[in-house]
Amino acid sequence: MSRSIRTTWLTLLLSLSLLPLLIVGGIFSWSAYIREQEHALEFQRTVTGQAVVQLSTFIDTAASEARLIVQTPNFVGATKGRQEEVLTQALFYRNIFDDLALLDANGKEIVRASRLGIVPPEQLLDRASDDAFLKTIEQNKPWYGAVYLSPVTKEPLLPLAVPMIDSGVGKPIGVLIVQVRLRQIFDTVANIQFGEKGAVEIITTEGLMVANRDPEMVGMTIGHLTTGDGVHPGAKGGSALLTHAPLVLGDTSILIIGEIPVVEALTPAYTQIITIAALLLVSALVATVIGVIAVRWITDPIQSLAVASRLISDGDLTQRVDVTVRNEIGSLQSEFNQMAQSLSAQRESIAVRNTELQSALAEVRDRAAAQALLISENARQREVIRELSIPVLPVGASTLVMPLIGTLDAERLLDFQDRALHAIEQTHASRLLIDITGVAVIDGEIAQGIVNAVQAARLLGCSAALVGIRPEVAQSLVGLGVDLGDVLTFKDLRTALDRTLTIHAHR
Amino acid sequence: MPHRRLVHLALILLSAALVACGSTQQPPPGNAPAAGAKKFRIGMSQANNAEPWRTAMNAQIAAAAAQHPELEVTFTDAKQNNAQQVTDVEQFISSGVDLLIISPNEATPLTNVVAKAYDKGIPVIVLDRKVNGDKYTLWIGADNKLIGRKAGEYVATWCKEQKHAPCNVIELRGLEGSTPALERGDGFREGIAANPDVKIIASQNADWVYDKAVPLAEAMLKANAAVDVIYGHNDPMGEAAITAAKNITRDLSKTLVLGIDALPTPDGGIQSVLKNHLNVTYVYPTGGTQAIEWAVKILETKATPPKEIVLETEEVTSVNAAAIYQKYGGK
Questions:
Q1: Same domain, yes or no: B295 and B279
Q2: HEC string for A252-296
Q3: A10 by DSSP, 3-state: which?
Q4: Does any CB of chain A come closer than 8 Å to the CB of residue B201?
Q5: B204/A181 Cβ within 8 A
Q6: Residue B11: inside a domain, yes or no?
Q7: pLDDT of residue B40
Q8: Which of A240, A357, A369, B322 is positioned for an S-S bond with A234, CB 3.0–4.6 A?
């Protein structure tokens, strides 16, 4: 039974129950994963969105601070000393700028103050070819440069230029270029925490990391973070859930990235998947147990029936199966038992009959043997009788007497001829007296036979004579026309004996 | 088959009995106090052990706690990293400390975790830098703004006395965004307002750290030919300016160098004044001793402390440096 009914049914039942379970579990897990990822992304987008708002608010504030400087009453036409005072006030009392440079309409620095110090007049530069100057003069609106890290302090700085407008002319008569200190706001943004390890980081369009909770990361160039939202390699490698929110500043922009290790972000999904898997496992176990039990319930009786049938077909009629259930299989079992019962009953009766027949046969054989014995006895007796019915009586030295009694038939006649001739030969008798006194009837054939015997005896040198022909025999002989020829006849045996003896004596 | 089940059952019962016997022989669980030993566990989350002032704070806490054998103080170092300090506090919370002392690296990033500890019923003593809101038990610190103003007033007066007009000041600031940096800066500006000739001409954040301050001070001194006053938000940064001047062979003999903190340690501000490095410094008490005093009161007598304790400061000049050093137990 390489592939038994149990295996087949079990396979069928289990695949029917487990396969849908697996499919449903797989779909649930997948959808949980997708849903949780969407949840996490949604939340993370909110966080990065807030960071963007904070950041843009800060930069807007810085921009309006810069505008305020150039809009300070009488600033445009003020003395260099006064302008320097305004700039240092802005630098050292507000602490949001790192460097302030006031350029005239030709791009030459009029005054420049940085947090490092006030630049002496001989060190002032001509910045006519600076983008900051050209674009601001040209567009007559604030201009933003790319965020960079200060070579001196390593602080992230944002170049920002605002046009200085002469209220009378309405045209830009100079430009204020400021370097906005982003460190504090970047630190605030980088310290926005969501979850355990979720963090916000900021990179420039060139991939320069300018804000990160880990100070070591700041200043690194990381290109691979500029991909779409979703699961990607994080800033430090490792799988992370990333969201991206750009903050556009004029012609340039910075990218605010929310990053959380994917393991943490998708913990709810993993929990759900593990729960689903556990439920699945339990269901599968239950289904398997039930399946095995159900299949056994169905197949056990069938298998035991099969085993019993095979044993019965091998000849063991004592096999019976237990009636285990009360259904069609149960009735099959009981009918099987009945069948086995009747089979064994039939075999028993056949055996009885067989024994009877055997003994009958033996009896017949015995009888046949007895019969044969009887038959042979009979034959022997008949032989004796035959011998006795044709006696040969030697009378004297050379005379034999053979009395014939009863009915003569062809067989007896042949016997008689045989015996007579044998006796003559043995005894060398010269006279044979055939006494037919006892013969009631002689037909032509017998008469001829007797004549033949007489003639045969004569050939042997023995003269034969008929004795005691009864009248009715004589009558019939005559009637039959039998020619006795020269056969001697005598009235009775005594006469014959007398004559014979006499003859012999005369000799 | 039944035999084998019986054997199994017997084995299970036997092993269960063995386990039960074994467990009764085990020592009592570890969280029970070892007889007469530490009754209260205090977590001390330090922002940055690299700053001498904070090392001094830790030392004062340890020394004060040594007077109370029932206290067990565990120190952590966040290395000027907000995230690290949040983690440190989280670990203190989960390990179930009886009281938390924290000297925050920055206010905002640590507000939530301090509130979390406070909400869990752990008394929280905040030292030096504040946290936002009021979810803490007690704040102990000095008035940085007052100290800054005193320094500013000293500068204003000194400039007038020295007849420096303009009187150029360069400033070495603490960590940007930290309350003391802000307050020491703002107070100073209030102080110098009395003398319009006093002008800040350069200002950089050296984050309290000597090593960061040296190159910045060099750059500032190079960029500014005339410097009359160097104001360091702490003594190490003031010392750094002196080192920087030495590095670029700049004579500071006519320059006023101020610091804050005045730690009574061999390499502290008071000694610096005594060595004629710093001209002036201001005592910024760490509050370590007071923190332990209040911790004991809170834990043992269930005393309710005031929400804030503002510690006094003292001006240290060459005149009084030796005395102050003695007063604060300098070694």
A1: no
A2: EEEEEEEEEEHHHHCHHHHHHHHHHHHHHHHHHHHHHHHHHHHHH
A3: helix
A4: yes
A5: no
A6: no
A7: 93
A8: A240
For A67, other C-beta atoms within 10 Å of its C-beta total 17
Q: Does B199 sit within 8 Å of A115, measured CB to CB?
A: no
- Kindly report, residue by residue over B262-303, the tens digit of the pLDDT: 988 888 899 999 999 999 999 998 899 999 999 999 999 988
- The residue of chain B with its CA nearest to that of A118 is B201
Residue of A116, A120, A191 lying closest to B202 (CB–CB): A116
Q: Are residues B180 and B296 in the same domain?
A: no
Smallest Cα–Cα separation from A57: which of A207, A195, A188? Answer: A188
- The residue ranking higher by pLDDT, B185 or A461, is B185
Encode A321-364 in three state secondary structure. Answer: CCCCCCCHHHHHHHHHHHHHHHHHHHHHHHHHHHHHHHHHHHHH
Lowest mean pLDDT segment, chosen from A170-179, A296-305, B28-37, B245-254: B28-37
Q: Do A152 and B219 touch (CB under 8 A)?
A: yes
> A interface mutation test: which of B48, B113, B189, B200 has the most A CBs within 10 A?
B200
Secondary structure string (H, E, C) spanning A413-461: HHHHHHHHHHHHHHHCCCEEEEEEEECCCCCHHHHHHHHHHHHHHHHCC
Residue B240 near residue B232, CB atoms below 8 Å: yes
Q: Which residues of A touch B170 (CB under 8 A)?
A: 117
With CB atoms and an 8 Å threshold, state whether B189 touches A93. Answer: yes
B79 and B118 share one domain: yes
Global pTM reads 0.65
In a domain, B257, yes or no: yes
DSSP string, B286-323: --HHHHHHHHHHHHHH-----SEEEEP--EEETTTHHH
Between A117, A187, A214, which is nearest B224 by CB?
A117
Cβ contacts from A onto B, under 8 A: 66
* Amino acid at site B76: T
What is the tally of structural domains in chain B?
Answer: 2
Residue A37's pLDDT is 87
For an interface test with B, the pick among A58, A89, A95, A189 (most B C-beta atoms closer than 10 Å) comes out as A95
pLDDT (tens digit, 9 = 90+) per residue, B153-167?
999 999 999 999 899
* CB-based contact B203 A95, cutoff 8 Å: yes
What chain A residue is nearest to B109 in terms of C-alpha separation? A191
- Same structural domain, B113 and B160: no
State which amino acid sits at residue A241.
L
Helices (H), chain B: 2-25, 52-66, 82-95, 107-119, 144-162, 179-192, 210-223, 235-247, 269-274, 288-301, 321-327
Closest residue by Cα to residue B280 from B188, B195, B183: B188
CB crowding B47-78: b at 16 or more within 10 Å, else e: bbbebbbbbbbbebbeebbeebeebbbeebbb
Chain A residue at shortest CA distance from B200: A92
> What span, in angstroms and rounded, lies between the C-alpha atoms of A71 and A75?
7
B297 and B262 in a single domain? The answer is: no
Pair (B135, B76) in one structural domain: yes
Nearest residue in A to B181, CA atom: A95
Same domain, B323 and B191: yes
Answer whether A95 sits within 8 Å of B185, measured CB to CB: yes
Positions of chain A with pLDDT lower than 50, given as ranges: 1, 507
A417-443 tens-digit pLDDT = 888 888 888 888 888 888 888 887 778
* Spatial distance between the Cα atoms of A477 and A442, rounded to a whole number of angstroms: 7
Q: Note whether ipTM > 0.90 here.
A: no
For residue A180, which of A264, A120, A240, A96 has the smallest C-alpha distance?
A96
Residue B229 and residue B107 in one domain? no
Nearest one of A32, A51, A44, A52 to A232, comparing CA atoms: A44
- CATH number (domain holding residue B269): 3.40.50.2300
Closest-CA residue in chain B for A189? B109
